[in-house]
Amino acid sequence: MKPVSLVEIIKKGGKLALSGKKISWFPPSEWLATYNKDTLSSDLIAALIVTIMLIPQSLAYALLAGLPPEVGLYASIFPLLAYAIFGTSRTLAVGPVAVVSLLTASTIGAIAAQGSADYLTAAILLAFISGLFLLLLGIFKLGFLANFLSHPVITGFINAAALIIATSQLKHLLGIKVSGRSFYELVTSILSQLAQTNMITLTLGTAVAGFLIWSRKGLKKLLVANGVKPLLAAVISKAGPLIAVIITVLISATLGLEHYGVRIVGDIPVGLPSLNIPSFNPELWSTLVGPAILISIIGFMESISVAQTLAAKKRQRITPNQELIGLGAANIASAFSGSYPVTGGFSRSVVNFDAGAETPAAGAFTAIGIAIAALLLTPLLYFLPVATLAAIIIVAVASLIDFSTMGQTWRYSRADFAAMLATIIITLLFGVEKGVMSGVALSIGVHLYNTSRPHVAIIGNVAGTEHFRNILRHEVSTSPRVLSLRVDESLYFANARFLEDYIYDQVAKRPKLEHVILQCAAVNAIDASAFESIEEINRRLKDSDVKFSMSEIKGPVMDRLKRTEFFHHLTGNVYLSHYQAIKEIDPESLK
Amino acid sequence: MKPVSLVEIIKKGGKLALSGKKISWFPPSEWLATYNKDTLSSDLIAALIVTIMLIPQSLAYALLAGLPPEVGLYASIFPLLAYAIFGTSRTLAVGPVAVVSLLTASTIGAIAAQGSADYLTAAILLAFISGLFLLLLGIFKLGFLANFLSHPVITGFINAAALIIATSQLKHLLGIKVSGRSFYELVTSILSQLAQTNMITLTLGTAVAGFLIWSRKGLKKLLVANGVKPLLAAVISKAGPLIAVIITVLISATLGLEHYGVRIVGDIPVGLPSLNIPSFNPELWSTLVGPAILISIIGFMESISVAQTLAAKKRQRITPNQELIGLGAANIASAFSGSYPVTGGFSRSVVNFDAGAETPAAGAFTAIGIAIAALLLTPLLYFLPVATLAAIIIVAVASLIDFSTMGQTWRYSRADFAAMLATIIITLLFGVEKGVMSGVALSIGVHLYNTSRPHVAIIGNVAGTEHFRNILRHEVSTSPRVLSLRVDESLYFANARFLEDYIYDQVAKRPKLEHVILQCAAVNAIDASAFESIEEINRRLKDSDVKFSMSEIKGPVMDRLKRTEFFHHLTGNVYLSHYQAIKEIDPESLK
Questions:
Q1: C-alpha atoms less than 13 angstroms from C-alpha of A539 in its C-beta half-sphere
Q2: Which residue in B has a C-alpha nearest to residue A506's C-alpha?
Q3: Burial class (CB in 10 A: 0-12, 13-18, 19+), B42
Q4: Residue A551's beta-bridge partner residues?
Q5: Burial class, B216, CB count within 10 angstroms (exposed 0-12 / middle 13-18 / buried 19+)
Q6: pLDDT class for B25, splitting at 50, 70, 90?
Q7: Hey, what's the torsion of the CAs at B253, B256, B260, B261, to 10 degrees?
Q8: pLDDT reported for residue A154
């Protein structure tokens, strides 16, 4: 193979076909060509708004992940640049997010003490393995694996995770020390420590939470009503968390709140992240591979949902496998900056979109904004009360809780609701990893169960037509010599025996029977197990002197059957239409 | 609830409806009423032949399971009686079988030393838990769970298990001591010990194996050719293993082979099994629950296959959930007789059927035959060379190896073949439990993968008809304003996003598009995840100013959709037929 120079790749639009859909090594070539002053100013405004939102979020989510605040800022610089280069969504805002931070805390909390060097080492390696895994999924086009998380399982998981996150932050709002990581441990620990509540911390935290809730809707209205221009009002209203940070820093510094037992953030190192090489401790790798895969998939799901939603609004397309590469690169960048797993955040991306971001350059500009903050603003955060960050987290995750989908799922499908409820309960009782795993197993189980008992109808001819319909629902004519069956499902291992059983039962009931004809119009596939069952049906019916025929077999199914000896053994025939079959076998039964 | 007396149950035919299909507490009421002298004599002859076959098999399979020979006989008395009372197959011959014996050895070998009291205790508890599990599956009608073992996985597993069984018996044929349980360990251990081979043992074992292979086909022919009546010739030809036992006992006793290093069976306790209460050690229970479930399911699969095959030949029906109860009772009886897990054996049942067994009474008579053997014949087996039993096992399992199905699966479906091959390789490398588990996971994975990328066709109108066909395969007319899609798969979580992606891709390509119509004739179900995807498609198409409609929705799918708000949000309409849809939306596109 001829080596391809980087310049050539960029010139050609960077498209290298691997197999099937194209994966691009340099997606910016798509938008760089048309970049102009207008897009630049749109991107700059969006970047400003997102930066204002991201500074307090970075600090808060690092707290949630059990990491020092500066690590949150580090997660918001180079990962954003990496995504801007390798991702396809024009408006996705990558960085630390709540659920991934919780998963990080839950994974690493089990193997290292918070604040220890081992804890940070593990977080960095987690980001690195996640990045590698996402890259591999993208390169091998395995993005479809994420689909095995069903919607009910995700909804259930997010609800339970939000509850755990909010509970885990209550200690900072109450100013108490709490142990435990599962929901149950957290709740009992909080209840036992309730008497130690620091009233000043609680007042401050509650006030911040109240302000944040109000600022989401009320602030913009208030500003506009007072003559502030809508664009500026929008910027300021997104700055609610930043305003809360500034005000509480001022209060905390002025009143010396740390002397009254209010925990403050303290020293944050000034400067950009230094280059970090992930650990190669094999034991740590083997411990973290499982959780890293889980974090990658959940992060990818969150990211791709919001990316697709936003892309659809402008009739743009994102490429899921390219997104995997973008997020993989972002996580590897995060690991090399000494930080923890990142993904595309929901609320931040929506803000980025609404603020008018036109290209991924907005993400790069946001990275520059956070870099400036890391260089200049960190000394100002010394007096920041931890309760402020906790309030920001609690308000953010409260909006993740979604009861309406739960109600809708209950009405739509009891089985899916059961999978959702089980995910919630197991997540709360046994932790996030077990919760998701059980949810996945359950939703696969529910699917297999449902398809393992397909709808099978005995059909008869609708007088005067060539149609055959369910004898239970329609006025149809049948023949005592012929049993016509329609099965409404693809045939595969989980339902192959069901069909066998059904047919033998029906045959045993009909002593005069001479023919069984299976109408296969709804059979989209027949796997090897079902194929053996069909051969077995043919063989056993032969033992009972009943001929077995099939009608209306679909093209791809027919192609596959033709590769076997089946049609040599088939005691009956294959018919293009069920009407033809009956016309040939028992024309008198047609009225 | 009124208590029901046993007499009443028997009088009423013992049918108590639990829910849905009836489960019978006393199935013999079905055949006892018509029992007469003819059925009695048929059953007696069949029982005699099966007893002759079962005596050496019982001893051999106990050896394979790592248990004393009498335990094999015990497994062939009360379990057979229990099955005769609670089972539904008229010809199934229950007792120890090769694969279940291997699974027993593999499970217990990991936790206790062969020959120790702990080993037997564990084997008994394994039978008890298996019995309980089968009973519970039967009572709660969960027999369908067995369907999650796909045919390729079973074939792969049986092939690998047969290979492991044969290898594990080679040591007895060579007269060497071998350690290890996995295939790799066995092979390396045998190779390292090959120099210690006892030539007399090897000669004897090889001669027995050769005789057994020949007797399967050659013996009956020879006898018939020499004027023996066919029925008697058939009986004698099934007695190959028994003849081998008798001859080698005589040789061994006469020549005093044990003094030449030939291992003999030695003392076997005389008498019937005494009542045994299974252990209630909770630690042992928790160790054995997993393997017991696996053994139950594999045993049930083997049993139900042969039972159904034989029942179909006489247009009889067996009830899978009742079979679970029959096999559960047999295993509990085995535990109480101090023995190990049993199930319906393939070759023995076929012999029972061919020998003319008419009712389960044949099984009861076989049990009496084995009881007589346990009372009278065991002293005669003192000199029986272990190599004879090993040869019986090797010849029996050699017939389980099935390359033709492997070849057929390869031709039919590469994905199924991959699952089969993986099962074989993992079983050989990592043992039987891991092999089956991986196989199940793989076949579920293959199914999900296949259905996660359903066939979606863009369809157009066939001129002059109301039919719509794939634009790639047929001459059809389409409209630039309307995109008609047909999806050939039920929609569920694994393929919901695929459909979304597909639709967004197609819409992004067509700037003039105003309508998307999804033809749902092949959609047998829509789960909660897919429902959310459809809502999302509707929502996103709305954002792109494209209306979304659906046609030919099946009744049950429609019923479910009607329970939601979906039709209030739907931007387009629901049409009974696709033709109606196009006639209303863009009649000019119809030629």
A1: 11
A2: B317
A3: middle
A4: A519, A575
A5: middle
A6: low
A7: 50
A8: 81
Question: A428 is written with which tokens?
Answer: 């709360």
Mean per-residue pLDDT, A280-294: 90
From residue A123, alpha-carbon distances to A60, A68, A78, A292 in Å are 16, 11, 16, 10
Which residue of chain B is at minimal alpha-carbon distance from A305? B497
Give the pair of three-digit tokens for residue A218. Answer: 């009320």
Q: Do B540 and A312 touch (CB under 8 A)?
A: yes
Q: Would you call A564 and B152 a contact, using CB atoms and an 8 Å cutoff? A: no
CA distances from A358 to A40, A90, A316 (A): 8, 6, 11
Residue pLDDT, tens place only, A90-125: 889 999 998 899 899 989 988 888 888 999 999 999
Q: Which of B489, B493, B505 is closest, CB to CB, to A147?
A: B493
Helix, coil or strand: residue A519: strand
Closest chain A residue to B142 measured between Cα atoms? A449
What DSSP designation does A408 have?
Answer: H
| pLDDT of A326 above 70 | yes
Beta bridge partners of A483: A516
Residue A453's pLDDT band, with cuts at 50, 70 and 90, is confident
Separation of CA A533 from chain center: 37
What is the DSSP track for A455-511? -EEEEEEPTTSS-EEETTTS--B-BTTEEEEEE-S-B-HHHHHHHHHHHHHHHHH-T
| Dist CA A422 CA A401 (whole Å) | 16
The pLDDT tens digits of the residues spanning A122-145 come to 999 999 999 999 999 999 888 777
CB contact under 8 A, B564 and A411: yes
Token pair for residue A436?
A: 């998701």
Which residues have a Cβ under 8 Å from the Cβ of B170 and sit 6 or more positions away? B178, B186, B190, B390, B394
Nearest one of A524, A521, A544, A538 to A459, comparing CA atoms:
A521
Distance from CA of B579 to the nearest CA of A (A): 17
Token pair, residue A289, equals 């591979």
- Domains in chain A, ordered, with CATH? 35-441 (no CATH), 456-589 (3.30.750.24)
* Contact flag A525-B494 (C-beta cutoff 8 Å): no
A564·B312 Cβ contact <8 A: no
Which residue of chain B has the CA closest to A316?
B508
Distance CA A480, CA A515 (A): 9
Distance CA A153, CA B529 (A): 9
Q: What percent of chain B has pLDDT over 90?
A: 30
* DSSP code, position A21: S
B311-325 confidence digits (pLDDT tens): 767 767 778 888 999
> Nearest CA to CA, how far is B552 from chain A (Å)?
13
φ and ψ at residue A285, rounded to 5 degrees: -55, -50
DSSP letter for each residue of B521-586 = TT---B-HHHHHHHHHHHHHHHHTT-EEEEES--HHHHHHHHTSSHHHH-SS-EESSHHHHHHHH-
- Do B556 and A455 make contact, defined as CB atoms within 8 angstroms? yes
What is the reported pLDDT for B269? 87
ipTM of this predicted complex? 0.71
Contact B313 A150 (CB under 8 A): no
The residue of chain B nearest to residue A495, with distances taken between CA atoms, is B147
Contact A451 B497 (CB under 8 A): no
Once rounded to an integer, what is the mean pLDDT over residues B502-507?
A: 88
Amino acid B315: pLDDT: 66
Provide the shortest C-alpha distance from residue A353 to chain B (in Å).
14
